[in-house]
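User: For my dataset I need records formatted as: sequence, then structure tokens, nothing else. Please produce one.
Assistant:
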Amino acid sequence: MPKTSKSKFSIIFTVLLVILLVFAAGCTKEGNNEQSENKNSQPPISEGVEMSLPGVGPNTIAEIVEAASPAVVKIETVVIEETQNPFLNDPFFRQFFGVPQQPQYQERTGLGSGFIISQEGYILTNEHVVDGAKEIQVRIKGRDKPVPAKVIGADFDLDLAVLKIPGSKDLPTLKMGSSEQIRVGNWVIAIGSPYGLEDTVTVGVISAKERPVSVQDRHYKHLLQTDASINPGNSGGPLLNLQGEVVGINTAVNAQAQGIGFAIPTSTVKEVLDDLIEEGRVVRPWMGVQIQTVTPDLAQYFRLNQDWGVVITMVLRGSPAEKSGLKTGDVIVALDGERVENTDKLTDIVRAKQVGDPLEVEIIRDGKRAQVKLIVEERPADSR
């Protein structure tokens, strides 16, 4: 090959080599930049992030419990029960041993919860916690000895009771909140002494409102339902909102299900609290009738033009209804001009009255409408 051709070839080869080196360097730099960008675009790894309930900070519940628990008390009761030897029901054993002249008794202890509502020493709890108790002791957090308490007022139907202990300025108290404002899904906190375990805290949400529930011979209305764990011994303790206010009194458990507990709403408590403290009972307005909602069959029997109203099935002796001339078989269709479609409506209207208020009753008797006036009286204790 001529010398000149060799020189040209060397020059071209050198230029191409430089171009390749420059291109390779650019690719390497771009690759490094991409790796750097990808590395920077990855979210930083967070260590020690504390998760919490929606709308609740990590210390919210702890702070509420710390502030509220001193006002929650453990209630211990002693009930004297009459006992009978089961063999005495058998005529064979009675023939030989006879029937004892003196009744036999035994003591039964009970546990429940409650909470202090005033520095005068008033405590709210359930009526069934203290029903029939000969002795009531209240254990307050931070005190070595229990404090004797007495029942100031109680109501079987509402399952509410107010106890009294000596008042003092250093008594911790809880504030009554609004159960009407609480919503299904709101967080709630239950504090009490289930199975005697003091200061037990459970958390859940309001599952439902306005629940009617029957437990043995007690019929509750308007209960709050919650999935916060409520067990025997929780009865009478507070159900708190996230402001640390009482929105319910824990009172009943569905033992055949999980996550179903109930509480008496504070709206019910506030209506009767003054009566319980001042009168020792709930003062209830009363007409003195037993009633039944009109059904299609009853409407046909009484020859009514409508299938609504309330039939009087019994008029009690000495009652306002008897004094006014109301009779069995009368169909109540209105009270003070307000239409009465069923027994619940009649009960709500009468309950809103005060003892001594006049009440105008519109009835259908023998196919004719008539007006009857009566004066509302207090329901006797033995008419439940």
